[in-house]
Write a structure and sequence with these properties.
It is built from no helices and nine strands. With 117 residues, it is an all-beta fold. The strands form three sheets. It has a four-stranded antiparallel sheet, with no helix packed on it. A three-stranded antiparallel sheet has the order 7-6-8, with no helix packed on it. A two-stranded parallel sheet has the order 1-4. The termini are far apart.
Length: 117
Amino acid sequence: MSEWQESKPQLDYVSESQPLVMRATWTLKMQSVGLWTSNFPATVWLDKMIHVFGQFDSGEVVWEGSNDGTHWLRLEHLRFPYEDLTPAGVTPAMIRPKVLHGTNETALTAILVGRKP
C-alpha cells in the first residue's frame, strides 16, 4: 500500500465539568496517519498523556511533531511536558499518531489527552 489513509480526530472534553481537559481520539488502521486539528494546539494544552490500544497485529505506532503542518519529525522521547522531543529540542506545535506497519487486521485507537494549566 503506497498511500496513507488519513484519520481525522474526534475532539471532546473529558467531562462537562472539566473544560480544561480535552481529548483527541484517532481510529487507525494499517498505513494510517492521524490528521492534526487546529482546535487542539499542542502548545496550549501543556500537560498531555497518550494511550494506544486495540489490535496491533504487528502494527507499529509512532508519534510525529510539526510546527508548520507540512514537515513532520518522529518524536523520539515521549515524555510530557515536552523536553527534547525533537532532534533540535524544539517543542512542536502539532503532534499526531502514525501507523508504520501492520496488516489488514491492524485496528488501533490512539488518544491524546491534554490539560490546560
